[in-house]
Design goal:
The chain is of the alpha+beta class. Helices cover 31% and strands 22% of the residues. The protein starts with 14 loop residues before the first helix and ends with a strand.
Length: 361
C-alpha cells in the first residue's frame, strides 16, 4: 500500500490530469459557440436558447460512436480526425429528419487520461462542430482503469437539432415513384465496417498500417483508413431551405449500406433502383474486398461503397438539387450557426420505383 494510504491517483484516476485536460480544451469548445449558447464550459448542464423564428419547433436527437475506427487511430497514434467522424455520425442522422443541428455533447472514456490525447480528440470534435454549425454544449471526460487498458479510449456523441413540425422528414409520406435519388459521395469508409476492413487488410491480408495503402499510393494505409467522414449536414440543410417539400427523403448511408438504409425512408410499396457505375467507388473498398475475398453482397451490406448520403427529390428539381449540394460551402441563408461546410461530390444514382427494397442494376 502507498505511504499514507491508497489514493484515487494510485488506483489509476488522476483528478488533476482531468482538470488540466478540461482547461486545455476550453478554447476549442468556445470556438463552436452559437449565439444561443448560455453560460460557459464547466456547468453541470449546458444551456441553449431555442432559436427564434420557429412556429412549431420539434427537437430531434441522435447519438452514435466511431466504432473500431478508434483501433486504427490508437495503432497509428493519430487522434485529431476521429472527432470529426464522431460529429458526422450524429449530425448527419439529424438531417434525415429534416433537422438543422443545434448542439453537441461528447463522452470520452479513457484507460488513462493524457492531456495531449484529449486535446487532439477535441480538435477533431470542435472542427466537426464548426463544419456542422453546432455548438459543443457539454461533455464528460472519464478515466476507466481496469476497464480500458492504458492508451485505449472510447468516444460517444450526442447531437440535438431542430425542425418545424410540418417539415419533418423520415416517414416517407412525400416519397413517390419517379423521385430521383441523388447520392453524396464519400471518399472513404466513414466510420462503418472497420471490424471487417481491419480483419481483411491487417489479419488476412497481412498489410501494415505504415505501408502504402496500395502499390503507388501517396499515403499510408493508416492514413487512408483515417480519412475523416464528410459532414453532409450543412449541404443538406441548405438544400432543404432552398427546395422545401421538393426534398422528399434523406438517408444516411452507414452500417448496412445502401440496401439497409434507403428502405428506412421509403413508404410501404416503394423501393429503389440504384445504378452501379453512376458514381466513383474509392479504391480502398476494392483493397478490402480483394484482401479478404469478401463477396459483393457482403460488401454492399457492410460498407457505403462511396455514397455517404442519399437524397430523394422531385424529378423536376434534380438539376437544382445537384447544383445546391455540390456548392463548396453552406451559405449564410442556413441561419445562425450555419456550418462552414465542405465541398460535397454529387451523383445521380437512381430512382424510386414501385416495389420493395433496393435493386442494384
Amino acid at each position: 500500500m502507498p505511504p499514507g494510504g491508497l489514493t484515487y491517483a494510485a488506483s489509476g484516476v488522476d483528478i488533476a490530469v482531468g482538470d488540466q485536460a478540461v482547461d486545455a480544451m476550453k478554447d476549442l469548445v468556445r470556438s463552436t459557440y452559437r449565439p444561443e449558447v448560455m453560460g460557459d464550459i464547466g456547468g453541470f448542464g449546458g444551456l441553449f436558447r431555442v432559436p427564434s423564428g420557429y412556429r412549431s419547433p420539434v427537437l430531434v436527437a441522435a447519438t452514435d460512436g466511431v466504432g473500431t475506427k478508434l483501433a486504427v487511430a490508437q495503432a497509428v497514434g493519430r487522434f485529431d480526425t476521429v472527432g470529426i467522424d464522431l460529429v458526422a455520425m450524429c449530425v448527419d442522422d439529424l438531417v434525415c429528419q429534416g433537422a438543422s443541428p443545434l448542439f453537441f455533447l461528447d463522452y470520452q472514456a479513457h484507460g488513462d487520461l493524457s492531456v495531449d490525447v484529449v486535446v487532439e480528440l477535441m480538435k477533431g470534435i470542435a472542427a466537426g462542430c464548426r463544419q456542422a454549425g453546432c455548438a459543443i454544449l457539454g461533455g464528460e471526460l472519464a478515466a476507466h482503469p481496469g476497464v480500458l487498458a492504458p492508451g485505449e479510449f472510447d468516444l460517444v456523441g450526442f447531437a440535438v437539432g431542430i425542425v418545424e413540425a410540418d417539415r419533418l422528414l423520415g416517414d416517407g409520406r412525400l416519397v413517390g415513384p419517379g423521385d430521383v435519388l441523388v447520392g453524396l459521395l464519400s471518399p472513404g469508409l466513414r466510420s462503418n465496417g472497420y471490424s471487417l476492413a481491419r480483419s481483411a487488410l491487417l489479419e488476412v491480408g497481412g498489410r501494415r498500417l505504415d505501408a502504402p495503402a496500395w502499390e503507388g499510393a501517396s499515403r499510408s494505409l493508416g492514413e487512408e483508413l483515417l480519412e475523416p467522414s464528410v459532414i453532409y449536414a450543412p449541404a443538406v440543410v441548405r438544400l432543404l431551405l432552398s427546395l422545401g417539400t421538393d426534398v422528399h427523403a434523406v438517408a444516411h448511408i452507414t452500417g448496412g449500406g445502401l440496401a439497409g438504409n434507403l428502405p428506412r425512408v421509403l413508404p410501404p410499396g416503394l423501393g429503389a433502383v440504384v445504378r452501379r457505375g453512376s458514381w466513383p467507388v474509392p479504391r480502398i473498398f476494392d483493397e478490402v474486398q480483394r484482401a479478404g475475398a469478401v463477396g459483393d453482397v457482403e460488401m454492399g451490406r457492410v460498407f457505403n461503397l462511396g455514397i455517404g448520403m442519399v437524397v430523394a427529390v422531385a424529378a423536376d428539381r434534380v438539376s437544382d438539387a445537384v447544383g445546391l449540394l455540390g456548392s463548396a460551402s453552406a451559405s449564410a441563408s442556413a441561419g445562425a450557426g450555419a456550418g462552414a461546410g465542405v465541398e460535397v461530390g454529387v451523383a445521380v444514382i437512381g430512382e424510386v420505383v414501385a416495389g420493395a427494397g433496393v435493386t442494384l442494376v
